[in-house]
Design a protein that fits this description.
It contains 11 helices and no strands. By secondary structure, the chain is mostly helical. The longest helix is centred in the middle third of the chain and has 14 residues. The N and C termini lie far apart (65 Å).
């Protein structure tokens, strides 16, 4: 337990190489120790080492770091598979990874998958409805489906959100694109 505190302190202070040396010297096997070692490798940009260590880890933080590492080494299919697995498990604390997966699909031109991901996220994260709905509007804008985007943005502008100005701006842009 004291070793983990030392490791955490080394990581906080940016002494990643020392954290790796210490962790390897004492051969930490539990999930928390493996996560700390993987964090050090991640910070050293040795993502493949981090992936090896994080495979099979049960900690939520470890799953998050594994997903980030997979993205960094461009292992998109493994990343999508992990996101699907987390969604099936009902992991509610990895919203940013789910939104990233949908955005990656959109950038790849796989609009149908991106839209399906966003739609399924509404069930998984009802408390994030506004952010997901904005992502759906953005997906429609990028696809030049301006009528659909207009409908979504109109709904967003009627909310009492702090982002209403952004929604009004994009609603005006969408109407301009439609020649209105």
């Amino acid at each position: 337990e004291d070793i983990k505190k030392v490791l955490a302190r080394l990581l906080e202070n940016g002494n990643y190489a020392q954290a790796v040396s210490l962790t390897e010297a004492i051969n930490v096997k539990d999930d928390e120790g493996r996560y700390l070692l993987a964090r050090a490798y991640f910070r050293l940009r040795q993502y493949r080492e981090a992936i090896k260590i994080l495979s099979g880890i049960s900690l939520t933080e470890g799953k998050y770091l594994l997903a980030q590492s997979l993205v960094r080494v461009k292992e998109k299919e493994a990343f999508y598979k992990l996101i699907d697995e987390l969604a099936r498990e009902g992991k509610k604390d990895l919203f940013s990874l789910h939104i990233l997966a949908a955005e990656m699909k959109r950038r790849e031109g796989d609009y149908a998958s991106a839209g399906a991901m966003l739609q399924s996220m509404l069930d998984l994260y009802p408390e994030k409805k506004e952010e997901i709905t904005w992502s759906q509007a953005w997906l429609n804008i990028r696809q030049k489906r301006f009528r659909d985007a207009e409908k979504i943005l109109t709904g967003l502008t009627s909310s009492s959100s702090n982002n209403r100005d952004k929604y009004f701006f994009w609603l005006a842009k969408v109407k301009k694109y439609q020649g209105q």
